[in-house]
Design goal:
- 2 copies of one chain form a homodimer.
- Chain A is of the alpha/beta class.
- Chain A has 2 domains: 162 residues, NAD(P)-binding Rossmann-like Domain (Rossmann fold), CATH 3.40.50.720; 144 residues, N-(1-d-carboxylethyl)-l-norvaline Dehydrogenase, domain 2.
- Helix content of chain A is 49%, strand content 14%.
- Chain A contains 13 helices and 9 strands.
- The first copy, chain A, has a 7-stranded mixed sheet with strand order 2-1-3-4-7-8-9, sandwiched between helices. Chain A has a two-stranded antiparallel sheet with strand order 5-6.
- Chain A is globular, with a radius of gyration of 20 Å.
- In chain A, 52% of the residues are buried.
- The mean pLDDT of chain A is 92.
């Protein structure tokens, strides 16, 4: 009896896309239950009709999505009807879409548009370091099918890239999304030179709001998810070195006088900041559901980003009113 | 009717001792229910028989202890029979004593020796920054008496120094103690230039071991304590900038060839490192109770500190065997 081999494809772009493809390809080469060939479709904003997308996906049954989050909807639309019936997907994309009906996680969007089960992979993993095979961790979030999650662990994990799977997809995905809001707050603290005590306090309050927000959105979210790599570890990395922190630092140093858009252009060489967009989306959810009072940090970050309070408002009294 | 006024005294030394005295004195000056005078006894290793200790404590009913932890037992012995009957104590001291009968927290030691109720105050609070009135947080842990804890919150808290009280004294105190073991691990990662992914991973694993250890030691310990300032926030600060991290970094850079003792003398101007002592004490507890397998990080830090494994063993396979 010949056992069916799984075939993976990577729909992605950027540094993280290349690193993910390398991890997958090196594992499939060594594992009998996977095809050696891994096709990668590289997303380019300037080539929106590249026909290779369908070619990359057509005979794969394990699709890895790792694109900027604003393009995933268009990519899914192009894949409808072009993929196999037994496809499993995983999203490495951080962010969420807020529609009039409420927020929609990227994994749900993929699930709904393509009719496939979709896991997520998040965590404290700077691509450059993984490319150099430095020790790193990641968390896979899955809904129900543990066997599928374990197949993703097999395909991504290496001795230097340790992957754990937890049955808490929304918690894992929201960690990856919400940490960017906290990183903006941490950047304000840095820019105002408020010190390490203040920065640690803001990161702590941020983690608590991430947890509370996730649990209100999805009551099934587990407490322990926030102690996985996707939670506390990714938050630490993002608040210490990420681009959201960097631009927020510059914004605070300018006293809020230069816009995020202007600083982004100047500091990030065309890369778009995820955090400010997410901050606005989170604020929309807080307003839709009348949760503002319970999330003083998230709310304050938005109010500062939109210029209605100065950056120094980040450590205001209201943080302690709940 | 004249309401009884509380009177505070600080038994302490060092930077944190002075800062604590400043916080207490500025609050008691403004609060009607406290005496304006706050006596401080400054502990000096070279003047062990300074008679002012008894004078400082004699008419106080709120005693703040903030000394290096190896001296607290001797100080308590000197105070037996010299203090008032209605005294409440609070310990700002990090560390624990491991006796043949098992570990003893500093607050328990004060409680047993002096027969007084003893709270603890821990958190992400670098003394220099608080002295400059930069925004900081702290956590008070208390056993049962919430009213007493609130009195400590009153006496320490300011708009720039935010103090919360939680009914989980052992959890708060163990956070302050165990974070130093994790900081040594983080220092190894820095010294070996293993990158931010690895450092965030080690901090995350460390927090999980802190929580598991505390809950095994004291089943009443609350999960949420690790999300207070004493938990995650203090861990972040200690792993980024503290002296334990610094010396462990140098130890790893020397390939484990120079001793902690030697590096301590060279780098800390006579200050004694808490973390290595605590690492040994924690290891003793792990052995006494046969818990080694459940705490691979704590155990590995000890084995590296004592020269039985190289610093690079810090990210070994065993971290993931549980």
């Amino acid at each position: 009896m010949i056992k069916k081999k799984h075939k993976a494809a990577v729909i992605g772009s950027g540094n993280w896309g290349s690193v993910a493809a390398k991890l997958v390809a090196s594992n499939t080469l060594n594992l009998d239950s996977f095809h050696d060939e891994v096709r990668m479709w590289v997303f380019e904003e300037t080539l929106p009709n590249d026909p290779d997308l369908e070619h990359a996906a057509e005979d794969a049954n394990m699709l890895v999505f790792v694109t900027p989050h604003q393009f995933i909807e268009g990519i899914c639309k192009r894949l409808v009807g072009k993929i196999k019936g037994d496809v499993e997907a995983i999203s490495l994309i951080k962010g969420m879409e807020v529609k009039t009906g409420g927020p929609c996680m990227i994994s749900s969007l993929i699930n709904k548009q393509l009719g496939v089960n979709c896991c997520v992979l998040m965590g404290a993993n700077i691509g450059d370091e993984i490319a150099m095979e430095k020790f790193s961790e990641a968390t896979i979030g899955y809904r129900e099918d543990k066997e599928v999650a374990q197949r993703w662990v097999q395909i991504f994990g290496t001795p230097y890239f340790r992957v754990s799977a937890v049955s808490c997809i929304e918690g894992v995905e929201l960690c990856g999304t919400l940490k960017n809001v906290v990183a903006i707050a941490a950047g304000f603290v840095d820019g105002l030179e408020m010190g390490n005590n203040a920065k640690a306090a803001i990161m702590r309050i941020g983690l608590n709001e991430m947890k509370a927000f996730s649990k209100l959105m999805f009551p099934s979210v587990c407490d322990n998810t926030f102690l996985e790599s996707c939670g506390i570890a990714d938050l630490i990395i993002t608040c210490l070195g990420g681009s959201n922190r960097k631009v927020a630092d510059a914004f605070a140093r300018s006293g809020g006088k230069r816009s995020f858009h202007e600083l982004e252009t100047e500091l990030l060489q065309g890369q778009k900041l995820q955090g400010v967009k997410t901050t606005g989306e989170v604020y929309e959810v807080l307003c839709q559901r009348e949760w503002q009072q319970s999330f003083p940090l998230f709310q304050t970050v938005h109010v500062i980003c939109t210029g209605h309070l100065p950056p120094s408002a980040i450590t205001q009294q209201r943080l302690y009113e709940n």
